[in-house]
Specification:
Helix content is about 10%, strand content about 30%. It has 3 domains: about 35 residues; about 220 residues, Galactose-binding domain-like (Jelly Rolls, Sandwich); about 200 residues, Galactose-binding domain-like (Jelly Rolls, Sandwich), CATH 2.60.120.260. The radius of gyration is 25 Å and the shape is elongated. It has 6 helices and 22 strands.
């Protein structure tokens, strides 16, 4: 990218893709109407029995090109359009969002399982969770008995595949040893030992699998699977469960407390895991010899780090911040890309600042209590950025009361002090910095080129915090 591009060229480069996206949305008129209705909470008009059509918001298509020639006897043909709306009682809602979620895979922690009900149904890699091989289950506890009318499951629709032994069971017993009702079962050879199923296998698509639960009453649901035609692993993107509290005899007894997936992960101090949405990998092909690039740098991360525990209720403050830079060629529209949510490794996601030590500054408008920062410079190739320094202050000029949060400039070549942090390789996981609740109105992010280029590159910065308590 030419760092001296003018404003008109930059705006045109960003506007044309947007216009194409709008055109695509117009082509998807039906799904847009359904999504709009869902956002407004409109379930449609009721019939004579008081039922209404269940409106489901579908994600965009997850795979392109010629579908695989998967000839599997007995499998339902892949749908090309949404199924007819299921008629359900008025007032049902998605009760999965507030369920406590557990799993047979002990490596799946609460933060990971919370992705199944976070509303993200897209086919991106970061939207999918992976459970170990063999028959595995995910369980939802709604806290009290519910009348369940519909279930929609998205395993992973990033490619055309069929999942095996998909079984959904309902019960009031958390161990599923008694009073178990099978809602769906396509394990026709009983290979998972849950009974011979009579339902058909199906292809994964963006429309998910809609199951009519016929108002079954249960506190718990279990969702089983045993790999797919593509992988022995068990994948989940999203599960929605539509229902309402079951009718009970008159009682003054308080309802059991419903614990959310995030609340279930809280530690004794009331902290919750910080859930980060990660971009897909940006460094395809054979990686270079990292010892030749930066022998003293921390090894490149190959899997997500353990979640940072933070106070509940934090938000990403960066999108609302005013952003400036030491590079006078960086216009506001260009700097806005740093907080636009696009963390991908594509060229149009990266901004370029001039050579030498440069900074980007955020002004939050008022002091904030900041607990975590995540920085993505550019992860389009394996590289190490130099003199990465993050400072906080209530002085916009950073001449007084400056608090250094991170500094890996170990030879003080940028003149901000000798750093004690290690250099690191850029990956899709970004650099997470625990800022321990520091209070500041302004943040500055410094860098001085990388092992690949003397230019300073930025893709995205996220800052998690809340308004500072007034003294």
């Amino acid at each position: 990218m030419n760092i001296r591009q003018n404003s008109l060229g930059w705006v045109l480069g960003r506007t044309l893709p947007f216009c194409l996206a709008v055109a695509m949305l117009n082509l998807l008129g039906l799904d847009s109407l359904l999504a709009a209705d869902a956002a407004k909470g409109e379930a449609g008009s009721s019939n004579a029995q008081g039922s209404v059509p269940l409106i489901i918001k579908y994600p965009p298509p997850g795979f392109k090109g010629t579908p695989k020639d998967l000839k599997i006897p007995g499998v339902e043909p892949a749908p090309q359009k949404p199924p007819p709306p299921l008629m359900v009682p008025a007032g049902v809602k998605n009760i999965a969002r507030t369920a406590k979620i557990t799993c047979s895979d002990k490596n799946a922690d609460a933060a990971m399982l919370a992705q199944i009900v976070d509303g993200d149904k897209t086919a991106n890699d970061e939207s999918i969770i992976y459970l170990r091989k063999g028959t595995q289950w995910v369980q939802m506890d709604f806290g009290s008995p519910q009348n369940i009318y519909a279930i929609v499951i998205w395993h992973a629709h990033n490619s055309q595949k069929v999942y095996h032994d998909v079984v959904v069971q309902a019960s009031d017993d958390p161990d599923f040893l008694k009073n178990v009702k099978t809602v769906f079962n396509n394990d026709q050879d009983n290979s998972s030992g849950l009974g011979v199923g009579t339902d058909r296998e199906y292809f994964e698509t963006r429309f998910g699998k809609l199951i009519n639960a016929n108002g079954v009453t249960a506190r718990y649901l279990r969702f089983y699977s045993k790999g797919s035609t593509e992988s022995a692993l068990n994948e989940y993107t999203e599960i929605e469960v539509y229902g309402k509290p079951a009718s009970t005899a008159a009682s003054d007894a308080p309802a059991p407390k419903v614990e959310t997936a995030a609340a279930a992960a809280r530690d004794p101090q009331g902290l919750v895991p910080l859930l980060l949405k990660l971009p897909p990998p940006g460094t395809p092909g054979t990686p270079p010899d990292i010892k030749k690039i930066a022998p003293d740098a921390a090894p490149p991360r190959t899997k997500p780090r353990p979640p940072l525990m933070v106070p509940p209720g934090l938000v990403n403050l960066a999108p609302a911040a005013r952003i400036t830079s030491s590079d006078p060629n960086a216009i506001p529209a260009m700097l806005a890309q740093i907080v636009d949510g696009d963390k991908s490794a594509s060229d149009n996601s990266i901004i370029y600042l001039r050579k030498g030590t440069q900074w980007v500054q955020m002004d939050f408008g008022a002091p904030k209590q900041i607990f975590a920062i995540v920085i993505w410079h550019a992860h389009d190739s394996l590289k190490v950025y130099h003199d990465v320094v993050v400072q906080a202050s209530n002085d916009p000029d950073f001449t007084q009361n400056v608090n250094t949060l991170f500094n890996n400039d170990q030879d003080n070549s940028s003149g901000l002090g000798v750093g004690t942090d290690r250099e690191y390789f850029e990956t899709r996981f970004g650099k997470l910095i625990d800022t321990k609740g520091t209070v500041a109105r302004y943040l500055r992010f410094y860098s001085r080129g990388s092992t690949e280029s003397a230019l300073n590159e930025y893709t995205e910065i996220e800052v998690y915090g809340r308004p500072a308590a007034k003294m």
